[in-house]
Structures are given as structure tokens and as C-alpha cells.
Amino acid sequence: MNRREFLVGIAALSLGGCGISRSFDRASDAFDFWWNGMEGVEVSRAQVAQIPYATILAKIGRGPQSLLVLGRIDALDLHWISADRNVFVTREGRLVKTVGLPANLVHTRLAGPDPLTTGAAVRASEAAGLVRYVDVMPGNYFDAGVAARYEPVGEERIEILELQYDCIVVRERNEVPIMDWSHENRFWIDTDSGFVWRSLQHFAPGTPPVEINITKPAALA
Predict the structure, then answer these.
(1) φ, ψ for residue 48, nearest 5 deg
(2) pTM of the model as a whole
(3) Where are the beta strands (DSSP E) in the chain?
């Protein structure tokens, strides 16, 4: 992602008319200053600290890593927007929607409390399960049932832009009969706070998973 692409993406946020804060318009000069002369340089903790918005790093499969900025909050749904206007929507660590990709997770509906947020996913004594329903395009899959089972597979200290977090790694095994699709997601959940710092999540059949690292968490009221 070069400087021009980053600034064009930020400018687009202020003009998109989809609930994006107008503060992006006022922030464009700050982004210009931050990005100036930094083409081809890896993102660092100091650079992220200068951005006045929550941020994540996302990478699909073996593709390039991109910095996404929090552009919108709908209750617990966080809309992360890239310079090329792709959008990942997360809800307490779970990917629930994507926009602008060749294949997209259009909608997610949970049939009950999410084990990722209740803590059930990290307790080995509980056989935590969840059914959720998703819409996926292309393929015209609507309200497709996803049956998930959870298993904590160990503890791991991870590093995200120079900061370390002690996490419990949770494996989520998913079965989607109507799509003839089985896949496995992973979540790195903070051992103290229960916050999901890192995840590897599939969102459409035949598409590599997206790895999401939280570089600056959103401050939710």
C-alpha cells in the first residue's frame, strides 16, 4: 500500500456517505504528514500510535498485509476500512461481514451467545458449541447454517507491533453442510481480559482465510 493509495482511501471515507465520521476529512492532513516519505516501510508501533483512530493489520492468505482504519461503529460491529475501500466488519473479535472482495461474507446471524465472548470457548471442561447463519456471495447462499465446536489448544505469547500478549489459542471447527464446506478458524484470546488480539478466519468457500491483528483497539462506550 503506497502513500497515494492510503490517502485516497482516507479521503473516500469522508465522502462515502455510509455513516463514516466526517473527522476523516479533517484528519487527511495528519495522515499526509504521517505517511510522507514512508513508502515501502513496514508499519511500526510508533507509526500506528500517531494515527488518531483504532487500527488493525489484515492479510488474506499469502497476500500483502494492509493497515485498516476504524471508520464506523454500529453497536458492537466495528467497520475496518482499507485504502482501496475493502471493509472487514468484526464483532468482539469475530468476522461477521466483508465488502469489496471477490467473495464476500454478506451477513452473519448468531443463534445464541458467542462462546468467544462468554468465555466458554477457552474452558476445556465445557463442550462449547454455536450455530450461526451466514449469507455468502457469490454462490447465492442465504441463511446457511454453520455448526461450530471449540477447543482450547494451548497458551501462546504473541507479539503484535512490538507489544506482547499472553493468549489462549482456541480452535473453532466449522461445518457448513449446504455448501459442503468444512473449515477451521483460530483465535488468540487474552488470558486476562478475554480480548481477541489475533484471529485466522475463513469467510467464503475457496477463499484463503484472513489473518487479523489488532494494533490499536477501539475505545467502545
Answers:
(1) -65, -35
(2) 0.81
(3) 55-60, 66-74, 77-81, 87-91, 94-99, 104-110, 129-137, 141-160, 163-176, 181-190, 196-201, 210-216
